[in-house]
Amino acid sequence: GFTMWMAGGGVKPSFSYGATDEFGYYATEDKVHVHDLHATLLALLGIDHEKLTYRDAGRDFRLTDVSGRVVKEIFS
Prior knowledge:
alpha+beta, two-stranded antiparallel ribbon, two-stranded antiparallel sheet, 1 helix, flat
């Protein structure tokens, strides 16, 4: 688990999302994958992560790979 501080841009003020075990090693509630984090940050910037693609070696790539969901619970 890790901590991230976010302010402005449509994020709820004074809000905590998710929880870890007593050692901070395992997520126990509301797990967010790094692809979900990227999708959420892009959504806060007004960018659709599923349409933001680039082509390399004949294959389309996305910053969120083939997954990633926008965590709308943190939006104000």
